[in-house]
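Tip: read the tokens left to right.
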């Protein structure tokens, strides 16, 4: 008689998890299944494939089952594993803080490029820092930069502080709880990924987004409420010859350019595309 199939192996449990997620319509079910399994086993996705016969303990199976049910409810994977990679840095993330997005890496690249062209101990403000993703990426790439990471959310700032400590950047990045640029000390560079989802976009947004804080996503009726305020405050904060980088939704780029030119008629304003070829960052050079 043939031996009964072993249901406890990595291979079998991966197939089960993938089928459960695909069955409720989760996109990339196979990838999520691998990430959750690797997380439960404190292993890597590569090792799952090189050791498909490894057996899970009962506790590991239960843990995987719980995570799979939460993923099936559309809880974003980074909230289940507690981490997300951004610009090559593995950051802690938790509900209450935005999960950093790959498109925001464009703003990091533009910030690093500007700092490279303007060497010296530059002062940078990361406005709406969330997990600290942008501040940490810039600080690691530009050792002379001193960064103030601002956010209005105490929960976000707790995660930012944790990440700043994780990367031993406490001496170079300070956090400030503040409303936009109110009371900010002068800066040479401001990078801002503020909430920019409009009321219309909120209606059709995927279920996953409901787990992320509204404070990090909602930008009022047209999505530009906070960015508009920041643009009005920025002239009092930005040093002459400074730079302001604003991430936006591609549909907002033209309007933002007009707003920026209204605030700074003689500034050089340009729009930059993300890897998907969509207008993503407005750069204002004073
Ligand atoms: C889109 S998230 C960006 C987070 C992070 N910079 C990133 O790219 O992953 C926007 C952040 O702005 C913060 N925020 C919202 N309103 C704010 C305000 N009035 N002043 C300062 N920060 C604010 C939110 O708490 C949130 O952390």
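Filled-in amino acids:
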């Amino acid at each position: 008689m043939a031996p009964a199939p072993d249901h406890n192996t990595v291979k079998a449990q991966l197939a089960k998890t993938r089928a459960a997620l695909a069955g409720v319509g989760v996109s990339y079910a196979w990838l999520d299944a691998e990430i959750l399994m690797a997380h439960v086993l404190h292993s890597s996705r590569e090792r799952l494939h090189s050791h498909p016969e490894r057996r899970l303990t009962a506790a590991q199976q239960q843990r995987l089952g719980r995570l799979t049910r939460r993923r099936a409810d559309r809880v974003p994977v980074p909230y289940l594993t507690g981490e997300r990679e951004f610009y090559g840095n593995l950051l802690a993330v938790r509900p209450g803080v935005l999960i950093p997005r790959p498109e925001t890496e464009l703003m990091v690249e533009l910030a690093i490029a500007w700092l490279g062209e303007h060497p010296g101990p530059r002062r940078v403000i990361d406005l709406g820092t969330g997990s600290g993703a942008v501040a940490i990426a810039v600080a690691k790439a530009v050792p002379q930069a001193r960064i103030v990471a601002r956010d209005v959310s105490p929960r976000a700032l707790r995660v930012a502080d944790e990440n700043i400590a994780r990367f031993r950047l406490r001496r170079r990045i300070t956090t400030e709880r503040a409303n936009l640029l109110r009371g900010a000390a002068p800066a040479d560079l401001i990078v801002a990924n503020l909430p920019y989802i409009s009321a219309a976009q909120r209606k059709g947004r995927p279920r996953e987004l409901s787990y992320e804080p509204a404070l990090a996503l909602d930008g009022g009726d047209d999505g530009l409420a906070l960015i508009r305020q920041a643009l009005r405050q920025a002239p009092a904060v930005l040093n002459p010859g400074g730079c302001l980088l604003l991430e936006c939704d591609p549909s907002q780029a033209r309007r933002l350019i007009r707003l920026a030119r209204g605030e700074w008629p003689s500034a050089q304003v340009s729009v930059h595309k993300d890897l998907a070829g969509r207008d993503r960052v407005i750069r204002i050079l004073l």
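The CA atoms of residues 150 and 232 lie 17 Å apart. The longest strand covers residues 238-247.
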